[in-house]
Amino acid sequence: MRRAAFAVAAGAMAVSLAACGSAKESKDSDSSKSSAPAANKGDDIKVGLLLPENKTARYEQFDKPLIEKKVKELTNNKAKVFYNNAQQNANLQSQQVDTMITNKVDVLIVDAVDAKAIKNSIQKAKDQGIKVVAYDRLAEGPIDAFTTFDNEEVGRAQGEALLKAMGAKATKSSKIVMINGSVTDPNAAQFKKGAHSALDGKVTIAKEYDTKEWSPDNANSEMEAAISAIGAKNIAGVYSANDGMAGGAITALKAAGVNVPVTGQDAELAGVQRILAGEQNMSIFKSYPTEANVAAEMAVALAKGTSLDSIAKTKVNSDSAKDVPALLVPVISLTKDNVNQTVIKEGFYTAAQICTGKYKADCDKYGVK
């Protein structure tokens, strides 16, 4: 498995990852017109932050407070951050963009519910002179900057981990189920592409689903349908694009008396506990502080009218924007063997939070402390 180097400091990441990533790099040396610096401003700026949903723990627990903290640090505590969560509702997010325009923010950080549906709203913001940073998902429209994780590598890492966990059962005739993310999320397509690059030709994908809204409940229903169609004893593994859906799938597998390797992503607390308990094989650990810090740095630079060159030199293209300055943050596979080196070291959780009740023995077994 190819593993990217992992670092915590956002400044260091900006330098070391400037030329990395699986996104398409532009050969055109001209930077996007939309990313041209605005008139220089001081620290007294307004930053709008729009996140997509609150079912996934990361957004409220990590992204929001981390971005707010970094923006304050970069502006001597003078910037104002206006925040909204769209609760997985694209129409609501469009209304929230309108509110940000009314509040006359200088820059928007947008993690789109629906990357295509947000296009017109981003254009409206740009028409009002508001800079836009696409966060985590490559939103359509005239964006000025973009940061995310190496999403195809996420899928590859998940797929390769699943094959490794299956061991001798990883044969062309072995049947697996794929539970992918929502079609409205461009990241989901990249995870899916990466996973297929690892799995295709190695195993038989007996059932595959694109799960609406990344819902654990929907994943549970999909897994139940797959078990009914394939037969519980005929399923050798499950690719799940994130931890929430993995939880839904595992509930269905348990009810059918099946224990097979299941992948995940986001290093959610419940996911970490399932990994230690042997119910989930792995997750993808992402340094949210790194991604959040980069987004904040981009937003403050754009609001102040300063260059992004020291933050990101990679360029990416969407269907509606070319040569967008970007930075792709690497990821690492989380297993029972590196809990201390990942989620605990990074401050996601303490051992006390992980090692509750029935998980205490598992923590002792794997030296989680």
In words, what does this structure look like?
The protein is an alpha/beta fold and 369 residues long. 40% of the residues lie in helices and 17% in strands. The protein contains 13 helices and twelve strands. The strands form three sheets. The protein has a seven-stranded mixed beta sheet, sandwiched between helices. Strands 7-6-8 form a three-stranded parallel beta sheet, with helices on both faces. Helix 2 (58-74) packs across helix 10 (288-304). The radius of gyration is 21 Å and the shape is globular. Mean pLDDT is 90; it is low at 1-38.
Topology of this structure?
Blueprint: H1 10-16, E1 46-51, H2 58-74, E2 80-85, H3 90-102, E3 107-110, H4 119-127, E4 131-135, E5 145-149, H5 151-166, E6 175-180, H6 186-199, E7 204-210, H7 216-230, E8 235-240, H8 243-255, H9 269-277, E9 283-286, H10 288-304, E10 314-316, E11 324-329, E12 331-334, H11 340-344, H12 351-354, H13 360-366
Q: What is the percentage of strand-forming residues?
A: 15-25%
Residue-averaged pLDDT: 90
Helix content: 25-40%
Number of separate strands: 12
Largest sheet composition: 7 strands, mixed
> Which structural class is indicated by helix and strand composition?
alpha/beta
Number of helices: 13
Q: What is the global morphology?
A: globular
The H/E string reads HEHEHEHEEHEHEHEHHEHEEEHHH
* CA distance, first residue to last residue: 27 Å
Radius of gyration: 21 Å
Strand line-up across the major sheet: 2-1-3-4-5-11-10
- Uncertain regions spanning at least 5 consecutive residues: 1-38
Oligomer category: single chain
